[in-house]
User: Fold this.
Amino acid sequence: MTGTQRTDGAADTAADATLEQRLSVLERENRALRLAVAELERISERDTLTPLYNRRYFLAALDAAISRASRYGDEATLVFCDVNRLKEINDNHGHAAGDFALIRLAERLAGAVRSTDTIARLGGDEFGIILEKTGPDAARDKIVALACALDEQCKYGKSLIPLSAAFGIAAIRPGVDSDALLEEADRNMYVAKSDHKAARHG
Assistant:
């Protein structure tokens, strides 16, 4: 073997090692990029306060449920949930206490639904739940269970903060868009709240 051949061989080996190093760096950068993208996707669909999904994700899930109802006749029910007396909690105990109550309520709601259901904070003191494979009658029974899960006083510092919510439902069905379903469930929630107040004072 000549000196030139030895030199060329050493150069090829060094070039291969450099290429391997570059490929290794690229693979690490790609893994980091994929993790960053996955985290951005997670953040984009999660509520900033509670451990639940956000309104954007929920509306997409509701549209998907409407599509399944149209194509396959799948049964599902939308539940609209409005926290009771959140303003009173904020006024009496401070906004940090109100945030604490929302987080606690979100955890209780999430623990009372199935993993196949979708639950989100829609904004402020409003939450939405999509009960899959559930008709209105079964949804009403589920609302009773949800109300019981929330019926507690949570301790915040030296204060006891009451948790409760009002619920309204709308059957997810073909031909009705997500905004109309949310409005229907919202109206039904206010009717239920009014009926409850009338029963308490009657």
